Amino acid sequence: MKLFSLLLDFLLPPSCPVCGAMVDEHGRMCAECWGKFNWISDPKCCVCGYPFPANIDLGDAPMCPTCAAGKNELDWLRSACVYDDVSKNIMLPFKHAGALKYRLVMSRAMINSLRELSNKQQGISNKSSSENNLPTQTKSLLMPYCLCPDVILPVPLATRRLWKRGYNQATVLARPIAKHFGVPIDHDSVRRKYRPDMGHMTASARTENIRGVFRVARPDRIRGKTILLVDDVMTTGATFHELRRVLKRAGAASVIGVTFCRVVRAI
After folding, report:
1. What would the DSSP string read from start to end of 96-122?
2. What pLDDT band is residue 128 in, cutting at 50, 70 and 90?
3. Measured between alpha carbons, how far is 96 from 114 in angstroms, rounded to an integer?
4. How far apart are CA 104 and CA 238, in angstroms?
């Protein structure tokens, strides 16, 4: 395998998938392109990963108003970066135009966001209650979900859209994540009906459009499991909210998620 890798590097030298500059390894961006992305780091909401301004200290487990009110779309969520003019220049071609050359860059960033939180949560869980003084509700939210998903579920596409596009972008991203964490992928337990594309819909229209679109075909594979949902982008959270609803109804223990990017609106 190492010999094959060396031969591949000789015949096709690794290059940045964004600008074409030479890099050390296939599937990596150059430092200049990497620096243009708005990567999400601390401080951020301990539940949904909503990014807060960098110059304020919110403690070990800050929560955004949405999650504090119990209106979070998933039990736990992380995104690698903010959806903006930079990230959409690779996300949209990857999603709609077959630009699969971005898949490793995107999935590695998602793995990094999962690893970063798992390390942080491990540190918090090792503290005594007298040291962290976190509320019971917050402690339960800080369970290291990303260390122990039972199954990875790429957000399904309707069959008509899958045939038209030729691939499910969420599945493409999920494969390296599943390999990294040693967790199986479930392609068949949830089915999706065809509905009009939600790209230009309002938040309320998205919620109405997505209602009832998912069906759990194999509840025996869902019951009692922690499900890690994988998708390319979170816009309003309507898709995740509906998936969580049907999966919890089918008996899932918890439903968590990771995306490459997310839309960040003022809250």
Report:
1. HS--GGGHHHHHHHHHHHHHHHHHHHH
2. very low
3. 25
4. 26
For 137-191, what is each residue's pLDDT tens digit? 444 444 444 447 899 999 999 999 999 999 999 999 999 999 998 999 999 999 9
Separation between Cα atoms, residue 22 and residue 24, nearest integer Å: 7
User: What single-letter DSSP state applies at residue 225?
Assistant: P
For 178, the enclosing helix (H) or strand (E) is: helix 169-181
Q: 229 with 194: CB under 8 angstroms?
A: no
Contact 190, 246 (CB under 8 A): yes
Domains of the chain with bracketed CATH: 1-36 (no CATH), 41-262 (3.40.50)
Q: How far apart are CA 253 and CA 180, in angstroms?
A: 23
What is the rounded CA–CA span in Å between residue 135 and residue 62?
A: 11
Query: What is the spatial distance between Cα 192 and Cα 243, in angstroms, rounded to a whole number?
Result: 10
Q: Indicate the pairing of strand 214-216 with strand 190-192.
A: antiparallel
Amino acid letter for position 208: E
CA dist list (Å): 237 to 130, 190, 226, 231: 36, 18, 19, 11
pTM for this prediction: 0.86
Q: Characterize 148-168 residue by residue with b for buried, 16 or more Cβ atoms within 10 angstroms of its Cβ, and e for exposed.
A: ebbbbbbbbbeeeeeeeeeeb
